[in-house]
């Protein structure tokens, strides 16, 4: 992988380990010569990831919607900043610029971004690896919820393979590099993908 889109919180956590691990994630991918594509902010876990990349010689591309540029949250030291019109265009551009997707801890926005990427993969719209860095068990409850969806018959168990989960950056990158995409669902017309 040459680039990873990272979705994570625009707030700092009250768990110092989450804040530090976000920085460390950036440091590891910079050292591995993997470009960061992220939401363009200087605040929260997002800012920590970007700082981890930039302070360790890596490249960070920020993608931010225009309405957020006036709120003084834009990271000004990025390798490149792309301004979009909408949040949806932001996600699409981040997807286009990346070879893989990672979710670090975050809030509603992070979950929305993660699940949109999973849905696109489920529909066969992309074949990129999608990972969760489950720092300090942050995503344990979400993973249990997904198991419940499978148990209730609302999610095919094979789709669980779309979500790679690891507790360390190194383990997650290894899983992402070995990812084998699922075949396009039979009910999808190949012209739709």
Helix/strand layout:
Layout (H helix, E strand, L loop, with lengths): L2 E5 L8 H16 L3 E4 L5 H11 L5 E6 H4 L10 E5 L2 H10 L3 E4 L4 H15 L7 E4 L6 H12 L11 E4 L2 H9 L16
Parallel strand pairs: 1-2, 1-5, 2-3, 3-4, 5-6, 6-7
- Provide the CATH architecture: 3-Layer(aba) Sandwich
Report the end-to-end length measured between terminal Cα atoms.
22 Å
SSE string:
EHEHEHEHEHEHEH
Envelope shape: globular
CATH class: Alpha Beta
Instruction: Please bin the fraction of helical residues.
Output: 25-40%
Q: How many individual domains?
A: 1
Q: Which parts are unreliable, with pLDDT below 50 for 5 consecutive residues or more? A: none
Please describe what this structure looks like.
The protein has one domain: Rossmann fold. Strands 4-3-2-1-5-6-7 form a seven-stranded parallel β-sheet. The protein is globular. Helix 1 runs parallel beside helix 2. With 193 residues, the chain is of the alpha/beta class. It starts with a strand and ends in a 16-residue tail after the last helix.
How would you concisely characterize the structure shown here?
Helices cover 40% and strands 17% of the residues. It has 193 residues and is of the alpha/beta class.
